[in-house]
Write a structure and sequence with these properties.
- The complex is a heterodimer.
- Chain A contains 16 helices and 12 strands.
- Chain A is of the alpha+beta class.
- In chain A, helix 10 crosses helix 15 and helix 12 packs across helix 14.
- Chain A is elongated and about 105 Å long.
- The termini of chain A are far apart.
- Chain B has one domain: Amino acid/polyamine transporter I, CATH 1.20.1740.
- In chain B, 75% of the residues lie in helices and 1% in strands.
- In chain B, strands 1-2 form a two-stranded antiparallel sheet.
- In chain B, helix 4 crosses helix 11.
- Classes of the chains: A alpha+beta, B mainly alpha.
């Protein structure tokens, strides 16, 4: 009990320590005093600019802003010029002069606010607002002239498509919201703002569509986000780790995307998106495992082609997880399972290899992962060197020298290709990681070991849930009415309902009777 | 912990099908030779009869498990005493299923690996699913694995169809006669008698009105597939050989060869065997643990698994060879005691007493 009390006290202390302004501190009528105080707070912050305005050698107003966070041209045009002209007005000493100025709308700024708390002034300045303090006034004017350098909208790097929109999110949360809003002109689309991170004060936006999202899920998202108490949020990955249901699972329980169309499609299915300022990756919850074989493009291409591709992806998912272990298990423990001709080929190729198959495969898998990692980390100009060393030296020469066998190289290479074909990178990571324990099981217990691993994986997966939604829904628990968009994709006019495990009300998306073939008949 | 109708269907199917398909056919062929499939048909019908009996009984108390409603019907003490034979059955059946599953894997895949390694690894999976997900977890596993089991069985049947000989089935009936056919069906009934375990499960159904039809459908699908399988076995091996085989259906899958490329399909069969064994073991161990907890009024039923799992393991290691747990167990334990007492006797007694007392506890939402 005493311990617990102690702990909460230290926690409070930490919070106060992070905000160095007392929350109840007010501005004083003396401009000089305010200036000294603010300068003390922003000590050594060389990016904070103070622009005093003088009349007859006496300072009557002070503009404070952070360099680079505001629109400097706008500042000159809309604030400094009117103020300098106003400074020649003899009435400038009148205490209420400042308020009148706003009332007359002499200052052309998008959003303004009057605050008297020092902490709010500091916060405003750091958020990219300009603060205007005047002599004899206990309130400061905060004007929103926020404008900063940002990356222009480009094609998303992690989810490229052949057909479909090519816009991807950027690091600015305002741009991202605009990208979503532009595709959904409905007041039902909501963006709830909040800030997370004691020091970073990162803006977080919870996006959802009112009337579709289940209130329970939305409430849970809000609760988990408000629970977060940390110093800074630098990427949505921070949020993801704080709000996951089962943090120790290798499987991602929160989906991330760079594509506004994916976000909107998810929102329309009753999911909730979490936008984080400073990163192009938007989080989507609840997530199900089937997104691993669903790409954005599936909904833009023809449904027959898409269904075939999805079945292929499902096969590749199994390959990326199972192929190396099945290879090890059959060639080591159960050679009778391999057709004779193939067995002879494999045996001939492996004749000179000094390692057992499991060690050989493990070795090649590790080398492959190393190549992949090096490919991401290395500076771009060196990239071609890596592929040369990887492809030629490790592959060709190792086989020729008889250190590894060609079948193993083929198996490992195919596994690698298969794991890259999954549209969700983070789910591919989970399967790629689990490949290694499965390989060891296969090396020690053969096919039975693989079966053991697969059953253990199934047990793990069926018990996972993301924000209360089972991870394998709608396959286990089975809801066959929602199976039109899992292993295959049915044509759009048949997928007329939102997924029943996510949505209770407004479940109809497309009214019935829009089958073009039938419509054509009825016209006749 | 609630399970849906579909989950119940797949549980019934995946628990009943594989073991019956593999072992019951050879036991029936000893008595009925080429008419073993008629025996299996009769066994299936009797299985449906048992399903009807136990589901009707359980549905008189849709919110209660067998342990609970036996006390409601017979009073506290008599109700508790009646559970004793079931407790023995739970423990013993678990260990036999474990032994059986491990034996099958051992005989098909291994030569040097010790048997207990397979048993312990299987038990680890079972403990994992019970501890992590309970009945809901088992039911979802069944939902994923059940369709795979069905597809593999249908696929094996299809691929084996090229070496079938209809003449092996003739003459129908005349060679064996009713007596032998009936005798042959008893071993089938013994395997279908497993369904008595589900009296502990119906109480978890989210919509208990479906229980009868779904369990019947699950049983019927199993029975039909087993009849088809036994016909195919006889058509492949003739009337005499299946009786001497250890698992004739599995032997048949080893004959599959299409284009000289699709061979060794038996490995698929080992995998669905593993799935089925896993579901069967975990459900039965769950029932044993949960039932014992209810029987002895223990709140934390999950703890009992640490007691039940080692007991199961030790009992499973006792039999001397691979045929003992399946043949002797069925002949000496299941047919003379379990079927008449546990599967038919006590449920019938409970039903009669319940009907005479005019008791029936309806669902709360219906009575209000």
């Amino acid at each position: 009990m005493a311990n617990k009390f102690k702990w909460t006290r230290t926690q409070e202390k930490e919070n106060i320590h992070m905000n160095d302004v007392l929350p109840e501190q007010k501005l004083t009528p003396s401009l000089c005093q305010n200036e000294t105080y603010l300068k003390e707070i922003f000590r050594n912050c060389s990016d904070v600019v103070y622009r005093p305005l003088y009349v007859e050698g006496r300072m009557y107003a002070l503009v404070i802003y952070v360099n680079g966070l505001i629109d400097t041209k706008g500042l000159e045009e809309m604030l400094l010029k009117p103020l300098l002209t106003a400074g020649h007005n003899p009435e400038v000493d009148k205490p209420s002069y400042f308020k009148e100025l706003i009332a007359q709308q002499a200052l052309a700024i998008k959003q303004t606010a009057l605050v008297s708390d020092v902490s709010l002034v500091v916060q405003g300045i750091l958020n990219g607002q300009i603060a205007l303090l005047t002599e004899g006034e206990t309130e400061a004017l905060l004007g929103n002239m926020s404008d900063y350098e940002k990356r222009s909208i480009g094609e998303p790097g992690t989810e490229s498509v052949v057909r479909g929109p090519r816009e991807g999110f950027t690091e600015s949360i305002f741009t991202n919201k605009a990208l979503i809003r532009r595709r959904m002109r409905s007041s039902k689309l909501k963006f709830e703002m909040t800030t997370v991170g004691e020091m970073s004060q990162t803006q977080i936006s919870i996006a959802y569509i009112e009337g579709i999202v289940k209130p329970g899920i939305l409430q849970e998202v809000r609760k988990r986000i408000h629970r977060i108490n940390t110093d800074a949020i630098l990427d949505s990955g921070y949020i993801e780790e704080f709000i996951e249901d089962t943090p120790h699972s290798p499987f991602p329980l929160v989906q991330n995307t760079e594509r506004p169309d994916v976000v909107l499609a998810s929102l329309l299915e009753g999911r909730v998106a979490i936008l984080v300022d400073g990163t192009p990756f938007v989080l989507i919850v609840p997530m199900t495992i089937w997104t691993a074989i669903h790409a954005a493009e599936d909904y833009y291409e023809h449904f027959i082609y898409t269904s075939g591709i999805r079945l292929l992806r499902f096969l590749l998912l199994s390959v990326s997880f199972l192929l190396p272990s099945l290879y090890v298990a059959t060639s080591t423990f159960h050679p009778q399972l391999i057709p004779e001709a193939l067995l002879l080929t494999i045996a001939a190729a492996r004749e000179n290899v000094p390692f057992p198959t499991v060690v050989e495969t493990l070795l090649m898998e590790v080398i492959f992962e190393a190549l992949r990692e090096a490919g991401i980390r290395l500076p771009k100009p060196v990239g071609s060197a890596v592929s040369m060393v990887g492809g030629l030296v490790l592959g060709e020469s190792a086989v020729r020298a008889g250190i590894v066998s060609a079948p193993t190289v083929i198996v490992v290479a195919f596994t690698g290709i298969a794991s890259f074909s999954l549209p969700r990178y983070n789910l591919g990571l989970a399967f790629r990681l689990l490949r290694f324990p499965l390989l060891l099981l296969a090396g020690s217990l053969g096919i039975y070991g693989v079966g053991f691993g697969v059953i253990a994986l199934i047990i793990h997966l069926v018990n996972l849930s993301s924000f209360g939604i089972p991870y394998l829904a709608p396959v286990a628990p089975n809801l066959s009415s929602n199976m039109k968009d899992i292993f295959i994709r049915m044509p759009r006019w048949t997928m007329n309902k939102r997924p029943g495990f996510l949505v209770d009300e407004n479940i109809i998306r497309t009214p019935a009777g829009q089958d073009p073939a039938k419509n054509k008949k009825s016209q006749k | 912990m609630q399970i849906s109708g579909k989950q119940l269907f797949w549980l019934v199917f995946s628990i009943e099908i594989v073991l019956t398909m593999l072992y019951a056919v050879s036991a029936a062929a000893i008595e009925a030779n080429q008419d073993a499939w008629i025996s299996m048909l009769l066994a299936g019908l009797m299985g449906l009869g048992i399903v009807f009996l136990i589901v009707r009984l359980s549905m008189r108390y849709p919110q209660q498990t067998f342990v609970q409603y036996s006390q409601t019907i017979l009073g506290k003490w008599a109700g508790k005493i009646v559970i004793i034979p079931y407790f023995v059955m739970w423990v013993y059946l678990n260990s036999m299923v474990l032994r059986n599953s491990a034996d099958f894997v051992y005989l098909t895949l291994f030569t040097k690996t010790p048997l207990y390694v397979i048993m312990v690894t299987l038990l680890i999976l079972v403990i994992y699913v019970i501890a992590a997900g309970g009945l809901a977890g088992i039911a979802r596993c069944g939902e994923l694995m059940g369709p795979i089991i069905l597809v593999v069985i249908l696929g094996t049947c299809l691929l084996s169809s090229n070496h079938l000989d209809w003449h092996h089935l003739t003459p129908v009936f005349i060679d064996s006669g009713w007596k032998h056919i009936m005798k042959g069906s008893i071993s089938g009934v013994a395997f279908y008698g497993d369904i008595i375990m589900f009296t502990m499960i119906f109480a978890f159904m989210s919509n208990s009105k479906q229980a009868l039809s779904i369990t019947m459908w699950g049983m019927a699908l199993t029975a039909v597939l087993v009849v088809v399988a036994s016909m195919m076995v006889i058509m492949t091996f003739g009337p005499i050989l299946p009786a001497r085989m250890w698992a004739p259906f599995f032997g048949m899958t080893r004959f599959i060869s299409v284009l000289g490329f699709i061979q060794n399909v038996d490995i698929l069969f080992v995998i669905i065997w593993l799935f089925s064994a896993f579901i069967k073991l975990s459900l039965f161990l769950f029932i044993a643990v949960y039932g014992t907890a209810q029987w002895l009024n223990i709140k934390n039923w999950r703890m009992l698994i640490w007691l039940m799992a080692p007991i199961t393991l030790v009992l499973a290691l006792l039999p001397q060879n691979a045929t003992a747990p399946i043949k002797e167990y069925v002949q000496q334990m299941w047919i003379p005691y379990v079927i008449p007492i546990n599967v038919i006797g006590i449920p019938l007694l409970l039903w009669i007493v319940s009907v005479m007392r005019g008791q029936s506890i309806q669902r709360k939402d219906e009575s209000n």
